[in-house]
Amino acid sequence: MADNAETIKKTVETAAATAQASANKFQAQAETVQAAGAKAFREGIDKSVAGFAELNVEGKKNIEALVASASAAQKGAETLSAASLAFSKKSWEDSVAAAQSLTAARSVQELVELQTSWAKSAAETYLAEVTRMTEVFTASVKDSFQPINERVTASVEKLQAAR
Fold it and tell me: What is the pLDDT of residues 91-138, one digit of tens each?
């Protein structure tokens, strides 16, 4: 019986040692899995924070482009307004001068010649002013869209580089 008790004792000790080794191995594996999961979670959070920071930077650049665009449009509108006012004033002064010269005409023929000359001059001046204002307007639109175009180009390049 002593041999049986000794055999049972050794079997129990071996089983306990095997169970303890298995438990230790399981615990080590669980700690490794938990550490890997924590590391992956931390990396995911870091990437998310970096992504949000990058989105914030891009959003700021987009707003800056919109502000620059609006400023350029406002400057163009101010330039056109000033040019329109100056043209209107000059046109009024020229019309008054023409009316004075028409009243000084001594004959109907001279009146027609003066009126024809004034009309031709007024039409040429008007066409020149329209051409100049069109150029100013075109430049203003170009300047207004430039910051937005640059942002769109930068965004497209960034998206293509991300592929």
Answer: 999 999 988 988 888 989 998 998 999 999 999 999 999 999 999 999
Question: pTM (2 decimals)?
Answer: 0.64
2-103 helix and 108-162 helix, angle to the nearest 10 degrees: 170
Amino acid at site 22: S
Q: What 3-state class would DSSP assign to 104?
A: coil
- Per-residue HEC secondary structure of 32-86 comes to HHHHHHHHHHHHHHHHHHHHHHHHHHHHHHHHHHHHHHHHHHHHHHHHHHHHHHH
Give the integer Cα–Cα distance in Å for 138 and 145: 11
Query: Are 150 and 65 spatial neighbours (Cβ–Cβ below 8 Å)?
Result: yes
Q: How many residues does the chain have?
A: 163
Find out whether 97 and 89 touch, Cβ atoms under 8 Å: no
- Give me 75's structure tokens: 């400057």
